């Protein structure tokens, strides 16, 4: 699927997501995917060796623990970029809504063998 030719209702797309930590693709541009994710709890430590990862918190609060740095605390409306090669893990004490922008072939765990299958919604 390519870039949508109509506006994407993020609230309508989030309503279609039932599982936490299961990214869903909503748009594609220049070889990148825009993914929506509902998160709650703690994700695994992981690294993306070949790409930066953009996190946008759209609802709730998200903490991103980053090796060698202070944790990043995101509230709704905040954006944070994890540089390529930096080990990190997102945490949400209560459900949060996030969007991630990254190259289309990037596994969410940084490792193809353990990555969740990502589909379009």
Outline the structure in words.
The chain has 1 helix and 8 strands; from the N terminus they run αββββββββ. With 121 residues, the chain is mainly beta. Strands 1, 2, 3, 4, 5, 6, 7 and 8 form an 8-stranded mixed beta sheet that branches. A hairpin with a 5-residue loop joins strand 4 and strand 5. The chain is globular. The N and C termini lie close together (10 Å).
Compressed to H and E, one letter per element, the order equals HEEEEEEEE
Instruction: List unreliable stretches of 5+ residues.
Output: none
General form: globular
User: What is the rounded Rg?
Assistant: 13 Å
Which structural category fits the helices and strands? mainly beta
Give the helix proportion (percent range): under 10%
Question: In angstroms, what separates the terminal alpha carbons?
Answer: 10 Å
Count of helical regions: 1
Largest sheet: 8 strands, mixed
Mean pLDDT: 91
Number of strands: 8
Keywords:
mainly beta; 1 helix; 8 strands
Outline the secondary-structure elements:
Elements lengths: L9 H6 L8 E6 L2 E11 L10 E7 L1 E6 L5 E4 L3 E4 L5 E16 L15 E2 L1
Parallel strand pairs: 1-8
Antiparallel strand pairs: 1-2, 2-7, 3-6, 3-7, 4-5, 4-7
What is this entry, summarized?
The protein has one helix at 10-15; strands at 24-29, 32-42, 53-59, 61-66, 72-75, 79-82, 88-103, 119-120. It is mainly β. Strands 1, 2, 3, 4, 5, 6, 7 and 8 form an eight-stranded mixed sheet that branches.
């Amino acid at each position: 699927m390519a870039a949508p030719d109509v506006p994407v209702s993020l609230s309508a797309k989030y309503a279609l997501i039932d599982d936490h930590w299961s990214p869903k693709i909503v748009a594609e541009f220049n070889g990148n995917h825009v993914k929506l994710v509902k998160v709650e709890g703690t994700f695994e430590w992981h690294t993306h060796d070949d790409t930066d990862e953009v996190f946008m918190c759209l609802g709730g609060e998200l903490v991103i623990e980053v090796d060698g740095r202070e944790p990043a605390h995101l509230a709704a409306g905040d954006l944070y970029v994890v540089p390529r090669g930096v080990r990190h893990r997102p945490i949400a004490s209560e459900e949060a809504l996030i969007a991630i922008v990254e190259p289309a072939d990037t596994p969410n765990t940084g490792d193809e063998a353990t990555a969740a299958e990502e589909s379009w919604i």
